[in-house]
Design brief:
The chain is an all-alpha fold and 438 residues long. The chain has 19 helices and no strands. The chain has a single domain, classed as Up-down Bundle (Sodium/glucose cotransporter), CATH 1.20.1730. The chain is globular and about 60 Å long. Bound molecules: tryptophan.
């Protein structure tokens, strides 16, 4: 296929990948996971998991995508291992699945941008969330979120995704840093930093069986691994790029943005007297508005906050949709625009249960993030570590002069610690989902 698109610029690829990585996972999921699993101790394990497991794993997806030069399922044919197509298919399916409820949460965020202007949620945040999170209005906003996502992906890699994320990612950074500075000025915010940044190792040692898998899962989700996004995005890059540098830049920026989100959320929660443990999908939608009713410029801060979340969610959603679109375009020669619209419609339909009842949303999230995602990552790790093996090392060394030794270390890390950690995550999720005692 000679007319396949590529990124216009290297920074375009990096920003699009950061756009995918930075999303609801950083601003919605990360703070409440941190709160649920004990604050700073979770943060520490998460950071370790990003470096030791997330970074090698993202490089594994890059290697598959760039070497194959084609979207996620056909990639395995292109690499002469058609028997592994199922791995790509699992990733594509998982992305589709995840986007269906991700978009529902995106719709809530749209709603909260509007409600910041009217101050709608300030009076009784808990009831407000309960009233708007499920039902016909949630469904309509889910449709709106999918429409915007479709609108961007329809324009392709250069004209759509690259252009959009070039504006989106810098905006997220600037606005979020602004809010973090604002949060710092609030009286009483100190306790939030204390909670977020000083780990309680005693609690960690006691609960490591739950904290460690949660942190590994969060690292994988946050880096957009498993659902073939990084395979697909890397299929649009050239051989002269240093994947170590790109992967490192993406992982680092994603982590810094997650931490900055924590530096906004936890001080705000501290101002209204703590309550960090407010867990579950409603977390930021209830506790942030509760905090906002107490602080100066509450509505304006809420507007900016939810605007950031919306932009971050959109730049991730486009990556999930792109995976499926590029599969149909590459493999069957479908026309991009029509394919994007059609797929957007199917994702919308799949998200209907989640929009009507948050219990469905939680169920979709559990299957998607706890089961499909680590399973897909595990299979890619086995494929790259043992099936591709030497070819993978050759591929990662392209455009990476001076990184020869790192290439070998990378392969061995894939075969040992990454493999074991992801295997453990899958096993624990299976036990949890089947209710087997451990
Ligand atoms: N990483 C995004 C977030 O943190 C979500 C996401 C986008 C994702 N694409 C993905 C997660 C692919 C897993 C796989 O919100």
């Amino acid at each position: 296929m000679t007319d396949r698109e590529t990124w216009a610029t290297r920074i375009g690829f990096i920003l699009a990948s950061i756009g995918s990585a930075v999303g609801l996972g950083n601003i919605w999921r990360f703070p409440y996971q941190t709160a649920e699993f004990g604050g700073a101790a979770f943060l520490l394990v998460y950071l370790l998991a990003v470096v030791v497991i997330g970074l090698p794993a993202i490089l594994a997806e890059f290697v598959v995508g760039r070497r194959a030069d084609i979207s996620a399922i056909s990639a395995f044919d292109a690499l002469d291992h058609p028997g592994w197509r199922a791995v790509g298919a699992l990733g594509v399916f998982g992305g589709f699945w995840t986007l269906s409820y991700y978009s529902v949460v995106g719709g809530w965020v749209f709603r909260y941008i509007g409600a910041s202007v009217t101050g709608g949620y300030l009076e009784a945040p808990g009831e407000y969330f309960g009233a708007v999170s499920a039902g016909p209005e949630a469904l309509a906003l889910h449709a709106a979120f999918m429409l915007v996502t479709v609108g961007i992906v329809a324009f392709g890699i250069r004209g759509g995704i690259e252009k959009a994320t070039k504006v989106m990612v810098p905006s997220i950074v600037i606005l979020l840093v602004g809010l973090a500075v604002y949060a710092f000025t609030l009286p009483g915010s100190g306790a939030g930093y204390q909670y977020f940044l000083s780990p309680d190792f005693g609690a960690l040692m006691e609960n490591y069986q739950t904290v460690v898998p949660a942190a590994v899962g969060q690292a994988l989700f946050s880096l957009s691994l498993g659902f073939a996004v990084m395979i697909t995005y890397a299929s649009y890059i050239d051989d002269d790029e240093n994947l170590f540098v790109d992967g490192g830049a993406i992982a680092l920026t994603n982590t810094l943005i997650g931490i900055t989100a924590g530096l906004v959320v936890f001080p705000l929660l501290a101002v209204q007297g703590g309550g960090y443990g407010e867990a579950g999908p409603g977390a930021i939608f209830v506790s942030i508005p509760t905090a906002l009713s107490d602080v100066p410029f509450g509505s304006a801060v809420g507007f900016v906050f939810f605007l950031i979340v919306a932009v971050a969610a959109l730049s991730s959603a486009i990556s999930l949709l792109e995976v499926v679109v590029s599969h149909l375009v590459d493999t069957y020669g479908f026309e991009r625009r029509r394919t994007t619209v059609l797929l957007g419609g199917i994702v919308f339909a799949l998200g209907i249960p989640s929009a009507l009842d948050t219990a469905w949303l939680t169920w979709f999230d559990a299957i998607g993030v706890n089961l499909l995602l680590p399973t897909a990552v595990l299979l890619v790790v086995v494929f790259v570590g043992w099936v591709l093996a030497d070819d993978a090392v050759e591929e990662i060394r392209k455009g990476a002069d001076g990184f020869e030794t790192v290439g070998t270390v990378w392969l061995w890390s894939i075969r040992s610690i990454v493999f074991l950690a992801v295997l453990g995550t899958v096993a624990l999720s299976l036990f949890e989902l089947t209710g087997a005692p451990l």
